[in-house]
Amino acid sequence: GDPTWSRCYTLTAVWVVVLCVIQLTAITVLWNKFNNLKSQNNQLQSRYSNLTKESEQLHASYNNLSIERDQLQTSYYSLSIEKDQLQTSYNSLTMEKDQLQTSYNSLTMEKDQLQTSYNSLIMETVFLSNYNNLSIEKDQIHTSCNNLTIERDQLQRDIEEIQRFFKLGWVYFNTSVYNISTEKKNWTESKQACRERGADLVIINSREEQEFINKLLGRRVAWIGLSDREREGEWKWVDDTPLMTG
């Protein structure tokens, strides 16, 4: 063959090979860049997804915070209203407390005045009580004096009466005087005669009195104040007390 064409063909083949190598290198470089870009794209896609999730989470957090803020704002307004109401109530209570303190002070003064008046009344009452007691004691002493005067006068009359009885022959024994009448009467007439003289048939109250009467009578016979005239066999004294035996 033609040597020139052979060289051209060889050169052409060499250039083709070089171009293929260059193209292969370019393709390799481009493929590497593609892979790098794809990897970067995947990373960016992943970051975008993460950022989207974070954005959604932030948006949800923002909404929650907005709701909480609104709730807090509402609570703040409510607390402000309650605080104003409490302040008003506190002011009212303070006024009431001051009024009560004033009333308490007034009542304390009135109580002290009443205590003073009470103490004065107690002293007056004690004085009046002592005065009344003295008046009662005076009246009692006066009554006792009158009673003693009456008793004295009665004793004087009794003494005079006893002295009169003595002159008439009466005998004294143990606070009583005894007389044996010489007149002969039945029991009823004898009782009546004794009572007309302010006396009565004798009632024997003790063994000593019985012995005195027996000694006074001696052998004489006289009526005593004992009978069964109301019911036979039921003996009674003239003062209507039953006869005690034994």
TrEMBL record:
Entry-linked InterPro entries: C-type_lectin-like, C-type_lectin-like/link_sf, C-type_Lectin_Domain_Fam1, CTDL_fold
Domain C-type lectin: 173-243
Annotated protein name in UniProt: C-type lectin domain family 4 member M-like isoform X2
Transmembrane regions: 12-31
Superkingdom classification of source: Eukaryota
Keyword field: Coiled coil, Disulfide bond, Glycoprotein, Lectin, Membrane, Transmembrane, Transmembrane helix
Organism expressing this protein natively: Clarias magur
GO MF annotations, alphabetized: carbohydrate binding
Coiled coil: 34-117
